[in-house]
Every structure is written in C-alpha cells, then in structure tokens.
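Changelog note: in this version the structure field was regenerated for every chain. One regenerated record is shown below for reference.
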Amino acid sequence: MSTIRVSGDTSGYFDLTVPSAAGTNTIDLSKLPVKDASDNLALTSLDVTGTMRMPNASSDPGSANLGEMYYNTTDNVMKIYTGSQWEALANTTLRNSTFDIFGDGSTVALYFLDGNGNDQGGTYNLSGDTSSGNFTGGKYGQAFNGTGTNHLIEDLGSFQTALSGDFSLSFWYNSSNTAQGNKRVFTIKGGAQAGGWNNYNSSLGFYKGTGGQNNASAASVIRVAEIPDATINDGSWHHLVFTLTSSGSHNIYLDGNSYDGAVSGESRSFNGGSYLAITTYDTGDGYNSICKIDQARVLNRVINSVEVAQLYNAI
C-alpha cells in the first residue's frame, strides 16, 4: 500500500491510500476514484516524492491532445504534442506568431504584415499605405512591398512612451535593389535614442542617435555600422535585429548572428513626422527604399544573442 496526497476540499489536503502494483513500489493511479468523464485522472494538484515515471513508447502515438508528453525509448528523448505533431523537447522552437514570445511582456508591437499594418497586440496599428495592394508574398504569408512610393508609419505618442528606455527591433528584409541612395528602410524614434536602417553607399547602414523629440521634429542619427549590398541586398530573405540602450550602446545581428560592420559614417535624421517608419522619411517618397519587410517585432528591452537566434529560428 502507498499513500499520495491530493488537493481536495476547502480544508486543504486529504490523503488517499491506494494499492501498489504487486511486487513494486509503484502507485497504481488507475485505482484512484477521482476521474473525469473520459477516464482521465482529474486532480488539482499532486505531491510526489521520489521518482515519477512518464508514459513511454518506442514510437509516437497515433493521436494525442495538445500538451501531452511521453518518453520515446527509441530516440531516448522526451516528446510533446504541439497540436499537429510530436516534437522532441530539445528541438521545440518558438512560434513567431506568439505575441509575447519570451513570456515576459517585452513585446510592444508585432506586425505580421499579412495584407495590413495591424499590430497583433491590438495597440499600435500602422497607418499609411495599408491597402491590400501594398503587400506581396513574404517570408511568412505576406510582406509589405516597398515600391519606393509607399510607406507605413506609427505616430502615436504612447508608442514612443513604451520605448522610453532600451529597445530592440527584429524583422525580415528582402531587396535586390543595390546602390540605393539615402533610402530609409525601418526606423524608430524612441524616448531616449533613435535607431534604424537606411540604404546608402552600396550598403545597408545602421544608424543611431538622440531621441526624445516630439512628433514634429526629427532625431539626429549617425551611421555606425553597415552591411554590404552583396551580403544584404541580394534578393534573399534576411533576418535583421538591432538592440539599443537608453545610453546609446548598440548591437546588430544578421541572420541570427552578431554582426560588426563598424564604420564612422555620415549623419542623417529619422522620422520627422512619426515614431516608427517603414520605407519612408516624413511620409514623403524622396527617401523611400525599394524592399520587402515582414514579421516585424518591437520590444521594450535589449534582447540577448540567444533570444535573437530564437527569433531567427522561430517557425
């Protein structure tokens, strides 16, 4: 006989003494009288001491419910059912469709750019050229198709307030247009610093500088790193990330890896009429990059290299 402790009535816990399998020290949970209509164990909590054995099998079960787990004795790994397939826990990846992807509330806005400029968090929907004709096939579903004469912006003051300190930007980028001259790609004007990407001098440059301006004045920025056209404007999808602290420290990442590309470059200005701008400066067409932008995520902290890799590998 063995005893397990179960969370029961309002007085707290009660103990159930149940038979063990003959000749073993294993509690036979099938003897418990507390089950649901499908004959599943229905306990609010279970205190277990010693070792708990997971269900095991040599191959994936034919069907399962979301979240079910078992030990695969052929591959010697724990597996979890994700709703469509069994995945080894060591191989499970983040879903880029998850708004709060790191589970810490750091995502401020997430733009799928699937035929619109909507924020999946419902707070910071983009304005500008949001009609369906401005979108095309993307890395995931659709992407914003920057043609040189269209743009997306966010001009709510609360967006800048949400980025009053450190922040990060992650998105997918695709362009085969080289030697673009001073053409904005994706820029953000935070409360303390501004940062973003601009095509110039046969490369895609990262710029940073002072932020905190109101919506009628631009942020002064300086080119501090660049990625050559041959690497970035090659017609392939590339994952770009920058992180920026309130004091101006920065990191940039290309396709999941840290990238240096340091330069001492020219000065520019970002976002005279918005706090976030995609393929535009001041909503005009004179500085608009020709490129595609997809799966853009804005976070209110500096993400680390492991998290960057997770975003790059997210499915």
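Spot check on this record: Residues 107-313 form a domain with the Jelly Rolls fold (CATH 2.60.120.200). Helices lie at 157-162, 229-232, 305-313.
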